């Protein structure tokens, strides 16, 4: 099948348009009648524009091309083509008014003179001429007139500055400052008048409105009517739903295949749909814009409002500061703006990456819930380019946000109590269960709190029942390290760099699933007395496991530096911060302030790998009954007696390859790699002798490190004490 040629991008089209405008404009002006091209070009332009075609046609094309070079937002579209036509017609007609017997196709004066009269025709086409300038060059006659009237005043200021009028330099500065204050006062008065007008419109609208009637106002910049279905709570509807669920359960019971060839994924009908209607009040938004401008003017900061974006939690007002205004001045006024807008808290994003404007995020009067069903059914979530998608929520523009755990490749989640952290974790887990069968995805869940993740017990995706014991959790992390090393050995044999390449090269029976390790409360594990071992295991998994399809999702409600240590932060680049108590906690999680201003209930700052700035997102809402419905559906797809065959008992028992009877006594020396110790034990077993030179030669270590490894083997009971120049005794077979 032939591949379609790629279309020209926007920049290439602009470049071609600029070259054409400049080329045609210059050639038409310089063309001579002696040449063939010049003759026909001159003849055509003469017929259209008359004798003065070089002064009508050529300059406007050159000027428009120059404008496109200067201003990247200017482009060629149907509106500007119409404006160009209006310019040619109006110019030719105006010349026809002053020069009698002026022949040109675009000269409409002879036709309209008898119909409208001379003066009326001139005025009409002069207005068309000004309109064409506005369309083509963004020329504003009003601003031009205003600046023209200001010229004498500005000349007087220059004269007073240089010549002086009996004033000292300090007095001249005072005069200039007073004039600047007058200008600011005029702008304040204009804003106050606009506010009064808005109030009058609002009162008139309130009288015209019917009581208890929801109405969607004119849409903002990105118009989206949000119509959310009401939940059907009728008895008959529930009866039909139960009958359908029973029928689905009967069909699901047929599938009892441990290879999960015919895996049945849960239906989206198990999840809730939208059930509230959000109305956007355009007048209220305009009122807030004026209040922002007024408050900033009080501190001598001039801005231009550049629109707004309506999200589920906040409305982001975008403004462009006047040249010379420091962004830090705007950021320092956060509390003053919150007071003026009567908001619980606001967040200032200065600047918004890639837009060149400042964003002020103000809470919505009514918040919109982002339901998981909406995200899972979206095109963003079902994008085939995403390898391990997880549902995150909606951003401040109302766009759906989906993360890819493979690209992250690990995720750190932090937030205080009631911030929506556990609900967000459930959203991540459920979204993966909807996308992958047990043969494609396995999970290990660690829940020291005992109540958050225990609902998932019994699903076939689990490698072990949900772990609630800290000691078993540590054993599970050590097993993950061993499994990671085993997978690296397998990948090395087939020369694969990652899990996708490995699965593509091996047979169907040898394919490996993704493994996602979910830790719901890291602080509890750290406080269990094994902080050093937990930190070392998590850091080791985070450093290396991504290439072999193992990924971490670690959550904590205490984002302090003794829990989220530097070693863990350095190896988990993707982070989510829900509401935290202080700016210090916010900096601990996402390395910048802002999370302390969030509103709770799923409001988050999402900073994936490679992001320039943290993105504000309203997380998905997953109710308890939705989680239970999905889990029960998954349990019905497999015989409960087979769950034991799918799980690995040694994960929590501490009998993995890495540990065993010898390594289980090793407490994870901070300065030594457990893998090196494991290899050293194997070398001693095979050679039946233990010496520093042997370890040094086989492992390629320096003498000091090899001696230290041998001392650790002595502590573990693998070799005996030093025996002079003779090799040490070996105590293991």
Number of helices: 27
Quote the beta fraction: 5-15%
CATH level 1 class label of the largest domain? Alpha Beta
Mean pLDDT: 78
What is the approximate shape?
Answer: elongated
Radius of gyration using CA atoms only: 36 Å
Number of domains: 5
CATH superfamily of the largest domain: P-loop containing nucleotide triphosphate hydrolases
Tell me the distance between the termini: 64 Å
User: At CATH's second level, what is the architecture of the largest domain?
Assistant: 3-Layer(aba) Sandwich
Q: For the report, how would you describe the main beta sheet?
A: 10 strands, mixed
Poorly predicted regions? 1-6, 157-175, 210-242, 246-258, 655-661
Helix content: 40-55%
Structural class: alpha/beta
Question: What name does the CATH topology of the largest domain carry?
Answer: Rossmann fold
Structure commentary:
The chain has 733 residues and is α/β, with parallel strands linked by helices. The chain folds into five domains: 10-139, no CATH class; 144-195, no CATH class; 282-363, Threonyl-tRNA Synthetase, Chain A, domain 2 (2-Layer Sandwich); 388-637, P-loop containing nucleotide triphosphate hydrolases (Rossmann fold, 3-Layer(aba) Sandwich); 659-715, Arc Repressor Mutant, subunit A. The chain has 27 helices and 14 strands. Strands 5, 6, 7, 8, 9, 10, 11, 12, 13 and 14 form a ten-stranded mixed β-sheet that branches. It has a four-stranded antiparallel β-sheet with strand order 1-2-4-3. A hairpin with an 8-residue loop joins strand 3 (347-349) and strand 4. The longest helix has 40 residues, at 169-208. Mean pLDDT is 78; it is low at 1-6, 157-175, 210-242, 246-258 and 655-661.
């Amino acid at each position: 099948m032939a591949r379609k040629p790629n279309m020209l991008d926007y920049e290439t089209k602009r470049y071609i348009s600029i070259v054409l405008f400049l080329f045609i404009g210059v050639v038409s002006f310089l063309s001579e009648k002696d040449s063939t091209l010049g003759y026909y070009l001159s003849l055509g332009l003469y017929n259209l524009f008359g004798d003065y075609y070089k002064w009508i046609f050529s300059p406007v094309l050159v000027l428009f091309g120059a404008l496109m070079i200067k201003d990247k937002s200017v482009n060629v579209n149907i509106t500007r083509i119409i404006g160009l036509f209006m310019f040619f017609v109006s110019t030719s007609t105006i010349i026809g008014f002053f020069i009698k017997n002026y022949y040109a196709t675009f000269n409409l004066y002879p036709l309209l003179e008898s119909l409208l009269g001379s003066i009326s025709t001139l005025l009409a086409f002069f207005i068309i001429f000004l309109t064409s300038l506005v369309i083509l060059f963004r020329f504003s006659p009003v601003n031009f007139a205003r600046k023209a009237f200001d010229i004498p005043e500005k000349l007087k200021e220059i004269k007073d500055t240089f010549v002086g009028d009996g004033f000292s330099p300090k007095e001249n500065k005072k005069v200039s400052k007073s004039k600047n204050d007058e200008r600011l006062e005029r702008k304040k008065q204009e804003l106050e008048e606009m506010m009064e007008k808005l109030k009058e419109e609002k009162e008139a609208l309130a009288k015209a409105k019917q009581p208890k009637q929801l109405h969607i106002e004119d849409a903002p910049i990105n118009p989206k009517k949000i119509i959310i279905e009401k939940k059907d709570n009728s008895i008959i509807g529930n009866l039909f739903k139960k009958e359908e669920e029973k029928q689905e359960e009967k069909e699901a019971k047929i599938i009892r295949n441990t290879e999960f060839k015919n895996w049945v994924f849960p239906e989206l009908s198990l999840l809730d749909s939208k059930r509230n209607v959000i109305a956007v009040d355009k007048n209220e938004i305009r009122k807030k814009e004026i209040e922002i401008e007024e408050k900033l003017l009080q501190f001598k900061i001039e801005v231009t409002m550049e629109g707004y974006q309506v999200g589920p939690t906040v409305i982001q007002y975008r403004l462009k500061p006047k040249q010379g205004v420091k962004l830090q001045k705007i950021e320092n006024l956060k509390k003053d703006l919150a007071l003026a807008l009567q908001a619980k808290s606001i967040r200032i994003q200065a600047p918004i990456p890639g837009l060149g404007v400042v964003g002020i995020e103000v809470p919505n009067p009514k918040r919109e819930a982002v339901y998981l069903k909406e995200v899972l059914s979206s095109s963003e979530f079902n994008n085939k380019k995403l390898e391990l998608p997880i549902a995150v929520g909606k951003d401040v523009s109302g766009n759906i946000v989906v993360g890819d755990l493979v690209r992250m490749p690990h995720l750190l989640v932090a937030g205080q109590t009631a911030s929506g952290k556990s609900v967000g974790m459930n959203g991540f887990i459920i979204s993966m269960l909807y996308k992958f069968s047990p043969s494609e995805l396995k999970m290990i869940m660690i829940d020291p709190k005992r109540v958050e993740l225990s609902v998932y017990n019994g699903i076939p995706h689990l490698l072990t029942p949900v772990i609630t014991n800290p000691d078993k959790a540590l054993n599970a992390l050590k097993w993950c390290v061993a499994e990671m090393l085993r997978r690296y050995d397998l990948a090395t044999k087939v020369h694969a760099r990652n899990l996708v390449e490995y699965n593509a090269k091996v047979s169907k029976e040898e394919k490996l699933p993704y493994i996602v390790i979910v830790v719901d409360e890291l602080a509890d594990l750290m406080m269990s007395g094994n902080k050093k071992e937990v930190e070392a295991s998590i850091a080791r998994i985070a450093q290396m496991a991504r290439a072999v399809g193992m990924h971490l999702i670690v959550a904590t409600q205490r984002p302090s530096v003794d829990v989220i240590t530097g070693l863990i932060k350095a190896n988990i680049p993707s982070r989510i911060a829900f509401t935290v108590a202080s700016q210090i906690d916010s900096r601990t999680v996402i390395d910048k302030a802002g999370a302390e201003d969030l509103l709770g209930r799923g409001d988050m700052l999402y900073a994936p790998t490679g992001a320039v700035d943290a993105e504000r997102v309203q997380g998905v809402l997953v109710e308890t009954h939705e989680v239970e419905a999905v889990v029960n559906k998954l349990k019905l797809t497999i015989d409960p007696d087979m769950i034991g065959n799918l799980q690995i008992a040694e994960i929590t028992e501490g009998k993995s390859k890495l540990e065993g009877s010898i390594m289980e006594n090793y407490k994870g020396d901070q300065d030594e790699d457990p893998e090196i110790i494991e290899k050293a034990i194997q070398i001693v077993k095979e050679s039946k002798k233990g010496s520093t030179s042997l370890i040094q030669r086989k492992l390629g270590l320096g003498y000091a490190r090899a001696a230290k490894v041998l001392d650790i083997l002595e502590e573990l009971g693998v070799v005996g004490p030093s025996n002079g120049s003779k090799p040490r005794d070996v105590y293991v077979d």
